[in-house]
Amino acid sequence: MISICIIEDIPDIREGLQAIIEGDARFNLLRCFTDAETAIAQLPALQPDVVLADINLPGKSGIDCVLEMKPVIAQTQFIMFTIYEDNDQVFEALKAGASGYILKNTTPEKIIDSLVELYQGGSPMSPKIARKVLSAFNAPNTERPEQSVNDLLSKREQEVLELLSKGFLYKEIADKLSISISTVKRHLNSIYTKLQVQNKVEAVNKLYKRE
Hints:
Layout: E1 2-7, H1 11-22, E2 27-33, H2 36-46, E3 50-54, H3 62-69, E4 77-82, H4 87-96, E5 100-103, H5 108-119, H6 127-136, H7 147-152, H8 155-165, H9 170-177, H10 181-195, H11 200-207
Parallel strand pairs: 1-2, 1-3, 3-4, 4-5
Helix pairs in contact: 2-3, 3-4, 8-10, 8-11, 9-10
């Protein structure tokens, strides 16, 4: 069972999320918070698998919460929940340690799928956001990867990660390299293990030394 905490200050949205999560037997909702300060005080004791956090909260932001909590509860995965499809906020959330980002107009079914995907090591976010984030990591002024990272990966794994960093989807990577999607996923699992990361965003982040 996947244990979850919610940080959301708007009652209707918080109660809606609570109903979605409590309605699925795979989830165990531990607690709902209305502000980051209370969450920061109590999350270490709760040790949830997943925290679903609004970005814009009264007082400290959801991003502040992730920044403070990720080093303390490293195994907990954070996913940001917001109405804003904004590049700056996406980058700040990911840099703070979030592994996913979904919009508040996401359907209940997709919210459930995203929480499961996050728990299983994925990085759920809308395709539009994923394209923006991963493409930006490969901007012209981006530093090239250190040799030590390349030394860890095989030539094919480097090719897969380079294409991922440019915003290509799994199917597109498979087509470009003339391999199956399952082979792409197998290479990615190997990359995550070798780089000691949990998802594609962290892998690209490490490749280009984005802390």
